């Protein structure tokens, strides 16, 4: 970490490097829950350190320009879906009636049109839109109560 901080913190007084290291270690301790097990730890650690160096420059009023090559692979990566999102969706849909759950799953989760979902459930398009609206409102209320 010291080497990374020294390399990224060129232009900062050398006595600040140890302070930044302490901030990095504290941030790692406080934010360790944000690291995703199964992913490499080094890029996560380097990102924490890089942000703390940037914070130090900001406090001193300097502008820092990072080369795009350093973050290009992160920018290009697709966002992974939340690992428990499907489980949470199934659990929430289990709290409403089966027809509404099927409608929400077809339209909102699978991307079918309201008309196609309505045909599959034996509803008119208008009735499906009303039922979908009510189901989404009910799910929203349930989610608020769970907070």
UniProtKB/TrEMBL annotation:
Domain RNA polymerase sigma-70 region per the UniProt entry, residue ranges: 15-61
Location of the RNA polymerase sigma factor 70 region 4 type domain: 90-139
Listed Gene3D superfamilies: 1.10.1740.10, Winged helix-like DNA-binding domain superfamily/Winged helix DNA-binding domain
UniProt key word Transcription regulation: yes
Record's keyword terms, sorted: DNA-binding, Sigma factor, Transcription, Transcription regulation
Stored Pfam families: Sigma70_r2, Sigma70_r4_2
An example molecular function term from Gene Ontology annotations: sigma factor activity
GO biological process, one term: DNA-templated transcription initiation
Family: Belongs to the sigma-70 factor family. ECF subfamily.
Protein name in the entry: SigD protein
Organism, as annotated: Paracoccus gahaiensis
